Amino acid sequence: MKKVIYSVIAAGLFAFGFTSCSPQDSDSHSLGGSPVETSALSISANVSADETGQENVVTVTNASKAQGGVRYYISLDGKSLVETPAGGSITQIVKKKGEYTAQLYAFSACDQQMISTSYSIAENWKDPSASDEPEGWMGFTAGTNLLAEWQPDNNYWFSPSDWSGGLDPGFDGDIHSGLNFTIPANTGSDQWQAQVHIEHNGPTLSAGKNYDFSVVIISGAGNIKATVKPQKEGDDNTFFTADQYPLHEGVNVIALSNVQGFDGQFKLALDFAGAPIGTAFTVERVFLSEHNDANVAPFDYDSSKNMLKDQPFGADFRFWFADGGWGQIADPEHDGDSTSEFSLTIPNGIGGDQWQGQVHIPFDNVKLSAGKKYNFSIVVIADNNIPGLTVKPQNDADDNSFLSADRHAVAANVPTAIVLTSREGFDGKFRLCLDFGGTPAGTNVTILDMYLAEE
What percent of the chain has pLDDT over 70? Predict the structure, then answer.
């Protein structure tokens, strides 16, 4: 490696001021200068935290002794060189976790030497200025969000069990960055005794159109219900739904796809009666668009019907990644290895064709039946665009027996739900095959909430 790099940059070194010494006499072919003293060479790498506390800052120091006629260069990627004098250092943020090597090159007019050091990055770096970095599916995104610029009034009516009203949940924020409140003392447990009204200035809808709607509710408690009622302002009897939805502690996404609209202005009413006193809630990410076929909600991973919930990957879990010539390359780095969250990093050298980035996840304890129909979904997050992710839920013993083998486009940093409904089953063990052929090398991908259930 060092011979190749040296030959590439040798000509350029003269431009930096290297001049070969003239031959000592006509019979000598010496370039002059002195050999590099290898015992004087030293390099170190130190990993530290940035201002956000993330341990992703590496400082590589040229700890060598200065030598006359010798110039030093550090490389952090094996390609580019940064001139760094003895005692000097270079610092940069390393964004991907992994094992790394830094090289120190020393050049004189007649010699070259290289030494290296290794360091580890434990976690991927997260940009603190990135807004709303996705950690899971957070609602619909396809189409124009009619609520993106909505400036509603945030009103409430919280009451004791005698319906006298007058309780204050302590509203703070808004439904874009997060509307926060807490169930006050003495709140009753009957439906509509903890009302939240996000109203006024909403878009005008049409009864002749269908719409997609979603909202995120972050709950401080589980095993409770919330009424979600996207409705016509001024008419409590005209709405998309007025159902009560079960909430678990943490992030809950309520999503309605392809619902018939109404003639009038949009309003969102919610009710949290029955939640324990002191429970904190956040309502955010409201989304409303004219219906778009891309807006499909994934199934609930925590459902008792989910055959994949908490199932381990089978013994034959494996990868097969290839370059453009179909020669096998290194397996991707991966983490999680569970049906709730599985992540991998696309390796260098991956080819651009379908089936050149295969992931095979068998489930030894999950079997399907040919006489039944099944629903399936996963959520995919990637930090680069994936032009075509193949999702193939299939028979472990037969590549020609599957629920689907379609390719799906995944936009960067947009949690994308891939949903299959009412698919004919097969007799055999279940395997999920994914293919990332054509995905840019270095892309970090997370697969969340694998779901499979009888229809």
Answer: 91
